[in-house]
Amino acid sequence: MITIEGNIVDIHSQRIYAAELKVQDGKILSVEERGAAAAAPYIMPGFIDAHVHIESSMLVPAQFARLAVVQGTVATISDPHEIANVCGMEGVTYMIENGLTVPFKFHFGVPSCVPATSFETAGATINVNDVDSLLQRDDILYLSEMMNFPGVLHGDPEVMKKIELAQKYGKPVDGHAPGLRGEALKKYVAAGISTDHECFTEEEASEKLQLGMKILIREGSAAKNFEALVALLNHYPDAMMFCSDDKHPDSLAEGHINQLCARAVAKGIDLFKVLKAACVNPVKHYKLKVGLLNSGDPADFIIVENLQDFTVLKTYINGTLVAENGESKTNLQFSDQAESFVNQFDCSFKEAADFSIRSAEYPRQNNLMPVIEALDGQLITNKLWISPLFVDDLIVSDVENDVLKIVVVNRYQDAPVAKAFIKNFGIRRGAIASSVAHDSHNIVAVGVDDESICRAVNSLIKTKGGVSCIDGDSEQVLPLPVAGLMSVEDGYKVAEMYQDIDKAAKSLGSKLSSPYMTLSFMALLVIPELKLSDKGLFDGKEFRLLN
């Protein structure tokens, strides 16, 4: 038995008091009050990330956990959608089994949209029978984000059957409906969708809350809606949660849900309303076996220095000390398990000529061409109409006006390269590429010339996945051998390597806060307005290919 003294943060009764906490056999044996709060650390439930794709950390679940527990995170609601698009059921199983190797509470769902659309090439399909099979598992808690909201609105039989199966097994259905309002939103909610993490504005989130949805405040490495939505915590403390969605390793090493709590408290929002979103609401909504400091609960809790910046002193999961004073207590050795890697990468090396764009090949209206406008900190893009820059009969990157070539290369089979143009990346030389490219995870690259783009792409074909940066004769690669999405190396080492390649990308001229994270979403067709899949330019509003 272990005994811990400190100030208990009782979220349920909204009280803080001195107490003695006793833990035995991984559970809370007792919480004995000792009077008014004193000058001592604070004991509180651990933080929960209510929606995250572990794959976006570029770390396998076990390595993700090592970094997350240092920030006081004890559990996640994890959608294995990314690896499922590459490796299908095998990928989902890999994530569950890898997560079981460490003391951390991963809660996986069934990916609902694999592939996300029919307008791209993925590596696998998860059909209705697969969804049925997975939902019957006790370690699968929900149906992951239903991104195909047009399918819900139009009553697509396969989409509706997946939702019906989740309801049959008593498991919630996560939503994904950016910008959906009015009658269409009512129909989406009526179908049984319970959450949304894609709200752009307070007005949108408020409408969804009033219809009974749970709304997630998201701060990832690229997509952020904290500032837009946090004030709603004042009015809907029981219906909101915090999440990161997609978080790169360097960002995770700096902070997690603890940072959102500190920011919310600094804005004057009531501490207990903040902690409901960070600790309690996910447990209730998903019926998690995560402790909330009640007698008999699993001993999942953290000790923090104060209730302003939430500096984490210790993290316990099932009574085991997993982090202390900024250091993880979980040591892992995966480098000898290369044979266990799951992946799909089956395309040939490319030539520079594969990336050229002839004038007749590219769609135009009134001598203007459609261009993707990337927005820093957002998954949405705009569609611009811009005059092309010609060299002979080719349309090329216009570096001076920051209109650069973007390409998507099918990684699952040899196929023609999809090519378009994008604004706001700011690169003035070289190219960057990534096999982390939501949702199908083909290779996406942006660059100033075909030779650099070709080198960036080929470097990833050689390593079977990763991120790369080409600057003249210099070539920098961070390999991601697990599904072309994740590394099994030490999480802090990967975070350092990612920081280095991120700096390299920014040295090319990019002013984006996270160039690789932004790049990874430029093939995400289910987020408007203009994106590029391996099959061509895609209009997210009209939901069709342009070429």
Q: Any overview of this molecule?
A:
The protein is of the alpha/beta class and 547 residues long. The strands form six sheets. An eight-stranded mixed sheet has the order 3-2-1-4-13-14-15-16, with no helix packed on it. Strands 18-17-22-21-24-23-25-26 form an eight-stranded mixed sheet, sandwiched between helices. It folds into two domains: 52-289, TIM Barrel; 343-545, no CATH class. It is built from 15 helices and 29 strands. Helix content is 26%, strand content 28%. It is globular, with a radius of gyration of 23 Å. The model is unreliable at 334-339 (pLDDT under 50). Helix 11 (257-266) runs antiparallel to helix 12.
The CATH C-level name of the largest domain is Alpha Beta
Whole-number radius of gyration?
23 Å
- The averaged pLDDT comes out at 94
Distance between the termini: 67 Å
Largest sheet: 8 strands, mixed
CATH homologous superfamily classification of the largest domain:
Metal-dependent hydrolases
Query: Which regions contain 5 or more consecutive residues with pLDDT less than 50?
Result: 334-339
The geometry reads as globular
How many helices does DSSP assign?
Answer: 15
Find the count of extended strands (DSSP E, 2+ residues): 29
Coarse structural class: alpha/beta
Order of the strands making up the biggest sheet: 3-2-1-4-13-14-15-16
